[in-house]
Write a structure and sequence with these properties.
Layout (H helix, E strand, L loop, with lengths): L19 H12 L4 E4 L6 H14 L3 E6 L6 H17 L6 H7 L4 E6 L5 E6 L5 H19 L3 E6 L2 H4 L5 H10 L5 E7 L2 H9 L10 E4 L5 H13 L7 H11 L3 H14 L8 H24 L3 H11 L10 H6 L5 H13 L3 E4 L2 E4 L2 H8 L2
Parallel strand pairs: 1-6, 1-7, 2-5, 5-6
Antiparallel strand pairs: 3-4, 8-9
Bound molecules: adenosine-5'-diphosphate and magnesium ion (MG).
């Protein structure tokens, strides 16, 4: 039987737990032409959520375009990636309608290649001397497409922080002014690097300043996650007690990726049994940490001694501790408050820690567990 817990790629359908409120809200925003910015730490379920909402959009006659900007390193990449995402929607699976794409793009043209098995693939060439007109061409190509189809279109830029990391804000500026004219397109911006994405939208000097509704994605509700786990075990002929489910949720701090990952391991351990045991959790946890340790070691090895010291201190922080207080600094032998402040900033920039209220926390909860067992 197939393991019912899926992790490491976006999930949908039975593998997707609840998030009814978020799905409805996001769908309503799209209907209303409200642009939104969804941010959360990595693997909290942004891509899965938009996937679910886009499935609904498709059923309701709205055309969704999903653009993964993760591999983007330059303006040229942006043009290529975006043009290709649009082309995939316009052409669908059958790529017969060559003419159609030329109606929406005037400057950007596809190049086709045929591989040995006869499959046709295509990419978009970008004229280096005409980057700006090409950007405008793809951005407005979507508008021309929406107008022609007389349909609502929604575009999701996943990992949007990549745009903010370019050397200049040229692309951001062009995007902002172009999107203002696109009244029948709802844009969804998503980002995993909170400090980068919030800077793009909350910094008055940036083109996207206060231009969109903010939609922070939180963890999944405890009851829903608990039912999800129970159901996934049950439908594969296994039972797990409420106490053990509670323990899993505590260990994973309601983080959906880790819940799926941990349950996947637990399910494998209990493959020949009908009942999940406490021991499956204990051993499963060790296995998970072991599997992740090479990634954590790689991160750890690149840190300075000071950064490591601050991370160790933060991993042990209790709710009443104040990170920059003299007691705390002394207790953890951290040196001056100003140097710790600098280190904290560098760790935020590396996306290893985040500020929640007055507290700092290590973003990856299993990295924290790994640090604690050093
Ligand atoms: N609603 C959900 N229900 C169940 N599992 C989820 C859900 N959202 C996310 N996950 C788990 O988290 C993993 C990462 O989700 P993903 O959508 O790729 O997150 P992000 O885009 O925020 O990095 C998925 O592979 C899945 O295991
Ligand atoms: Mg994602």
């Amino acid at each position: 039987m197939k393991n019912p817990f899926v992790y490491g790629k976006e999930v949908s359908g039975d593998n997707f737990c609840n998030r009814k409120r978020e799905k409805n809200e996001l769908y309503r925003d799209i209907i209303n032409g409200q642009n939104v910015i969804i941010f959360s730490q990595r693997r909290l379920g942004k891509t899965s959520l938009i996937n679910e909402v886009f499935n609904k959009c498709r059923k309701k006659g709205i055309i969704p375009i999903y653009v993964d900007l993760y591999p983007m390193l330059s303006e040229e990449d942006f043009i290529r990636i975006y043009a290709k995402s649009i082309a995939e929607v316009v052409w669908g699976k059958i790529r017969k309608k060559l003419k159609e794409i030329t109606q929406f793009f005037h400057k950007v043209r596809p190049t086709f290649t045929v591989n040995q098995t006869g499959e046709i693939s295509y990419s978009f060439d970008v004229d280096r001397k005409a980057i700006i007109p090409s950007i405008e061409d793809v951005l407005d190509g979507v508008k021309r497409y929406a107008d022609r189809k007389k349909k609502k279109v929604t575009v999701c830029f996943d990992e949007f922080q990549q745009i903010g990391q370019l050397k200049t804000d040229k692309l951001e500026k062009i995007m902002r002014s172009s999107f203002q004219k696109h009244n029948n397109i709802a844009y969804v911006f998503m980002g995993s690097k909170k400090h980068l994405i919030t800077d793009m939208f909350n910094n008055p000097n940036r083109p996207f300043y206060r231009s969109t509704k903010s939609f922070p994605l939180e963890k999944i509700n405890k009851c829903e996650l608990s039912l999800f786990i129970q159901d996934r075990f049950q439908t594969t002929g296994k039972s797990i007690s409420k106490d053990l489910i509670g323990e899993i949720l505590d260990i994973c701090e309601l983080h959906p990726y880790y819940v799926q990952y941990f349950c996947h391991i637990i399910w494998e351990r209990a493959i020949d049994r009908k009942i999940v045991k406490q021991e499956d959790l204990r051993e499963g946890l060790k296995l998970l940490l072991k599997r992740e340790s090479s990634t954590y070691e790689a991160t750890w090895d690149l840190l300075t001694v000071k950064q490591k010291q601050v991370l160790v201190a933060i991993s042990k922080v209790s709710p009443n501790d104040k990170l920059f207080s003299s007691e705390f600094l002394e207790k953890h032998n951290l040196g001056s408050a100003s140097s710790v402040q600098r280190t904290v900033r560098s760790l935020i920039n590396k996306d290893l820690i985040d500020k929640a209220g007055e507290m700092y926390m290590i973003i990856d909860i299993f990295f924290k567990k790994w640090i604690l067992q050093l």
